Amino acid sequence: MAAERGLELVRELHRAAGGHLPPFRTEEMRQALEEMRALYERNQADVSEAKSGRTDLIFLIRFRHCCLLRNQRCLLAYLYDRLLRIRALRWEYGSVLPNTIQFHMSAEEVEWFNRYKKSLATYMRSVGGEEGLDLTQDIKPPKSLYIEVRCLKDHGEFEIDDGTTILLKKNSQHFLPRWKCEQLIRQGVLEHVLS
Amino acid sequence: MYQHTLFGAYINAIILLLLQRVLLLVASDVDALCACKILQALFQCDHVQYTLVPVAGWQELETAFLEHKDQFKYFVFINCGANVDLLEILQPEEDTFFFICDSHRPINVVNVYNDTQIKLLVKQDDDLDVPAYDDIFRDEEDEEEDSEDESDGSEPSEKRRRFEEVCCTGRKVTLQMWLFLHFRREILFDYEQYEYHGTSSAMVMFDLAWIMSKDLNDMLWWAIVGLTDQWVQDKITQMKYVTDIGILQRHVSRHNHRNEDEENSLSIDCMRIAFEYDLRLALYQHWSLYESLCNTSYTSASLKLWSVQGQKRLQEFLADMGLPLKQVKQKFNSMDVSLKENLREMIEESANKFGMKDLRVQTFSIHFGFKNKFSASDIVYATTSLMENIEKEDSETTNFIKALDSLSRGNLDKLHQGLDLAKKQLRAIQQTVASCICTNLVISQGPFLYCSLMEGTPDVKLFSKPVSLCLLSKYLLKSFVCSTKNKRCKLLPLVMAAPMDVEQGTVIMVGIPPEVESSDKKNFFGRAFEKARGPQGAVLPAGPGRCCPAGSVHASSTDSPGGLSPASKRCLPAQKPQTIIELKTEDRSKFLDALISLLS
């Protein structure tokens, strides 16, 4: 009764460490909201009764109110934490999220993500002169223009900005400009070789 | 043609004008790995984008070329490709360039005389003995009538073209033409009869770096390891080794002179290379002295350690030096300092008494930090065993990458792993050699000695790899020469066979030249193997002969990838140095018979 489902949701998110986004628990959310609604209705009924004389109900009303507040707090924490994780995904994966992750987001979250993307893009365009500045590149200060990368799995052909294609076969090593490889390094296809 | 000093200019042209990317095709031996590391460092210095693809045999080379030929115009071959006609096999486009840095000799004449597409990297004083151009090729103008049918679409203005063998059937052949062809065949036969090795590719690359003034101590160390690899695998003569050591010694003193000066010396963590007149015992500083003496081919063969008498002689040897057994059997680093101080001189003195005159050899060692001291041969053994590691079921390319990594100083854990594997490998080799000699497995077949490893032999899986098998055969031959009393047998070469893949039923065979003091390390088994295989239902293509694998699973003649037109006629041996081949087990006896009749 005491906001158990809300707590469940929060616990689940707490366990999913490392920015990982578990699927959106619509069912539990609905149940928690249902619980809140039930509590609220009972409270409504009791308040009108308490107004007309029965003061011993005040404690019960108070208790239910606290439960409602707790539920609200849990649910809001859940939603907000998910939004923060989704925001981090934009910086990690770029503007197109892999399908598996998109699956885990609810429709509203997807819309929020799109609006965040737009907002970020507008900001990046406004900074840094005419063409804008891509802030998601080079999150750590780069040491060199070109890096040596090793291919960890067969990825097939990979096209880069100037049109040339590179065949990424397992265990082949390449020496490429840093910005072309960053995406693939994050995805785990390439590995930065430090000699 | 030779493009040594101009290579630097070429690379600069590549970067500045064309901003092209380069594909490196690297063979699977330590020399190639070292040359590759040096070249990678040079490319990284100049921001030349490259892709590195390891190749272990002809098939892989072809596949890699076909996969990448649309994306690259510049190919660099390291330790592969010099001794075959690359243009004919790979059929590149007109604007593709091949740069070849290969220590295998003889270099195919087409590669030498091609002006446009193939550039060879050789040292200027490396004597190639290439036959004169006019002896092998005829210019187009001289053969207007005869070559009309073949030169469809060729430009008459191109003076030097690839010579295509004139088909003589049903055509009027002049006496001059016939004589020319006859002499040409002889000259080519003499030229390509023996296979040997030239200067190490790593040294050539280091030279290149030096010319471009971009050489570093690291690159020098890799050049040293490349040269030592050639010496460990017995690919070059003693003279050449000593000469090359002299050349490297000059570079070493140039880079490392600061260590001698007490005031300005570098911190202990910096890498330093030192010249040493060190013992020839394999891995002795990372093992115990006793183990090292037992497992080095030189000492084991001279003392005949497979017999009981030999063991006694070893004890005498140790007693002569005054080294207590207990000390000698523990780890070298834990030996008493008083014993280690004059160890080299003591061992040399005693070794002279026991008939081992060359126990010391000129080599280099590297130091960085307080714990890390390695000799060049240690690194060679470690890297070879990493490359041919059979313990995990990794693919060959994974092993190649691990071995490549182990050459960097930051990956000491891989190096130590390599050293452990090398110890196992050396022990396995010695035990196999001992058992072969004791059970008389080495039989004389007339013109050569033959030894075949059975499937159930312990550690036989280790010897399914080419370099390990080569090492085993060399040690076996050395030991056999010391053990046999038959004077004639001492001068014979050795052919060794081991099971390669039990499921597919293939056998790997290697032929090595005889073990003679003054041998020039020239190996005729390449041609001999080809000829012996020829009649087994394979088609010999025209021109400098190459053979087809008789039913071997690897180089499948029927399903060659597209791009090679009469693919069934143009097959390749499975391994790069043609002295190593693969056969099906059933074909083995036929092949041996053919070889015996050929060589007697």
UniProtKB/TrEMBL annotation, chain A:
UniProt subcellular location: Chromosome; Nucleus
Matching SUPFAM superfamilies: GINS helical bundle-like (SSF158573)
Residue ranges of every copy of the GINS subunit domain listed in the record: 47-127
CDD domains per the UniProt record, alphabetical: GINS_A_psf1, GINS_B_Psf1
Single Gene Ontology BP annotation: DNA strand elongation involved in mitotic DNA replication
Span of domain DNA replication complex GINS protein PSF1 C-terminal: 143-194
Keywords: Chromosome, DNA replication, Nucleus
Highest taxon of the lineage: Eukaryota
Keyword Nucleus among record annotations: yes
Pfam families: PSF1_C (PF24997), Sld5 (PF05916)
Family matches, as InterPro entries: GINS_A, GINS_bundle-like_dom_sf, GINS_Psf1, PSF1_C
Assigned GO CC terms: GINS complex
Chain's role: Required for correct functioning of the GINS complex, a complex that plays an essential role in the initiation of DNA replication, and progression of DNA replication forks. GINS complex seems to bind preferentially to single-stranded DNA.
Subunit record text: Component of the GINS complex.
Family under the similarity heading: Belongs to the GINS1/PSF1 family.
Name used for this protein in its record: DNA replication complex GINS protein PSF1
Organism annotation: Catharus ustulatus
Automatic annotation (TrEMBL), chain B:
Locations listed in the record: Nucleus
Record field: compositional bias (Acidic residues): 139-155
Example of a GO MF term: DNA replication origin binding
Location of region: Disordered: 139-160, 551-570
GO biological process, one term: DNA replication initiation
Record keywords, A-Z: Cell cycle, DNA replication, Nucleus, Signal
Gene Ontology cellular-component annotations: DNA replication preinitiation complex
Signal sequence, start to end: 1-27
Highest rank taxon of the organism: Eukaryota
Family: Belongs to the CDC45 family.
Name of the protein in its database record: Cell division cycle 45
